Amino acid sequence: MTTAMAEAQNSKDLRQAPVQGSTPPVGSTTTGAIAVAAESTVATRMSASPSFDVADFPVPHGREEEWRFTPLDRLRGLHDGTAVATGQGVKVEVSAPDGVTVETVGRDDERLGRAGVPVDRVAAQAYSSFEKASVVTVPKETVLDTPVRITVHGEPLDGAAATVYGQLVVELGAFAEAVVVVDHTGDAVLAANVDYILGDGAKLTVVSVQDWDDKAVHVGQHNALVGRDASFKSVAVTFGGDLVRLNPRVAYAGPGGEAELFGLYFTDQGQHQEHRLFVDHNTPHCKSNVVYKGALQGEDAHAVWIGDVLIEAGAEGTDTYEMNRNLVLTDGARVDSVPNLEIETGEIVGAGHASATGRFDDEQLFYLMARGIPEHEARRLVVRGFFAELVQQIGLPDVEERLIARIEEELEASVA
Fold it and tell me: Where does this protein have compositionally biased stretches of type Low complexity (predicted)?
C-alpha cells in the first residue's frame, strides 16, 4: 500500500504557501476515495453578519461557503425552520462540586450571548427557540479539585427522536480554575449554543464528548471569551451520530490570553462529522494552538475540518499554530481539510498551519509485523498511537479510558 498525503503549511507572517505535491482542488477525491487537504486565501468566517435573529440569515442551499460540505437533507430541518421543537426528549443533568452555582434561567438573563453571537442560521435558530438555559458559575478565586460533569441525553418520543434547541453558559470568575466535561449520548435532533466566559487569570478545561446513537443529529456553536491572562483548553471528541457539525470559536477580552483547541474524531460508515473552527486574535499578545486528528473507515464516511485563524491589525505579539491530521483506514472514506490563516499585521511572534491526510504507513506496519505482531494488532497499535497525545490532554483517567475503549470498539467493527 502506498501512502497518499497532501500537506499545506504556513510559517511566520506568510499569508499563503503552495500545497506540496500534486493536489486536486478541495472537495475532490483521489483514487481510493481520499480527499486531500488544501488551503484557501478566503477565510471561512460565515458570510452573513453575526446576529441573534434567525431572520437575518437566508435559508442555505448548499452552495454557500459555510454550507458547501454539509448534507443539508440530513439536518432534519434545523437549517430551514421546519424542525419544530418537541419541548421534551433531551435531559440535561449537572453534577458540580461545592461552591459551584448551577441555575436554570429564562431568555432574559444578561449572561446569555456574552461570549459570542450566532454566525449561521442554525445557531440563530437555536438562540431564538430555546426556552430555558443552563448556567454554571464558578466564583472568582475558586479552584475546583473535581470536575463539573454535564450530561445531555436524548430519549426518543413515541419512537421518534426529539427536536430540541438549547443554550448552556459556563462562567469562571477571575483566577478561578475548573474542568468541565459535557457528555452527549442517546438519540436526538439537537441545535445548541454553548458559551464559555473566562474572567481575568481564570483557567478552564472543557471536554466535550459527542457519543450519540447512530441516527442522532447535533449542530452546535461553541463560543469562548478568554479574559486577560486567562487560559482556555478545549478537547472535542466526536464518535457517534448520523451528522455532527460543531463550530468552536475563540475571542480574547484582554492581552495575555491563551487558547488550546484539541479534537479527536472517528468517522464511521455513512457518518458526517464536521468541525469548523475560528480563532479571532483581536487582542495583542495572545496565543492559540489547534490540533485536531481524525480516523475514518467505511463507505461514505465523511469528515470535514475547517480551521480559520484571523490575526487582526491590532493584535501585535500574536503566537498561533493550527494542525489537522487524518488517517484513512479503508476505501470509500472522504476527508475535506481546509486550514486558513489571515494576517493583518507583521508584528507577530509566529503563525503557521499544517494539514495532512493519508493511509497507514507501510513502514510502521512492516516494523511491527516483523516483530511477530499480527497485522490486525499492528493496525490497532498505530491508531492508538495516532490519537495518544490528544487523549492525554484530557487529564481525567476515567474519561481517557472510556475514549480508548471506544476507539478499540471502532477498530473491532472495521475488522468484523
Answer: 21-31
Give bridge partners of residue 110 from the DSSP assignment.
Answer: none
pLDDT in tens, the chain (416 residues): 333 333 333 333 332 332 222 233 333 333 334 444 444 434 445 556 899 999 999 999 999 999 999 999 999 999 999 999 987 889 999 999 999 999 999 999 999 999 999 999 999 999 999 999 999 999 999 999 999 999 999 998 888 899 999 999 999 999 999 999 999 999 999 999 999 999 999 999 999 999 999 999 999 999 999 999 999 999 999 999 999 999 999 999 999 999 999 999 999 999 999 999 999 999 999 999 999 999 999 999 999 999 999 999 999 999 999 999 999 988 899 999 999 999 999 899 999 999 988 876 666 666 677 777 776 777 777 777 888 888 888 888 989 999 888 888 887 765 54
> Could you tell me the pTM of the whole model?
0.88
CB-based burial label for 384 (10 Å; 0-12, 13-18, 19+):
middle
Show Cβ contacts of residue 336 under 8 Å, excluding neighbours closer than 6 positions: 26, 27, 35, 69, 302, 303, 304, 305
In the chain, the amino acid numbered 252 is: Y
C-alpha cell at 93: 443533568
Tell me the three cell numbers of residue 385: 498511537
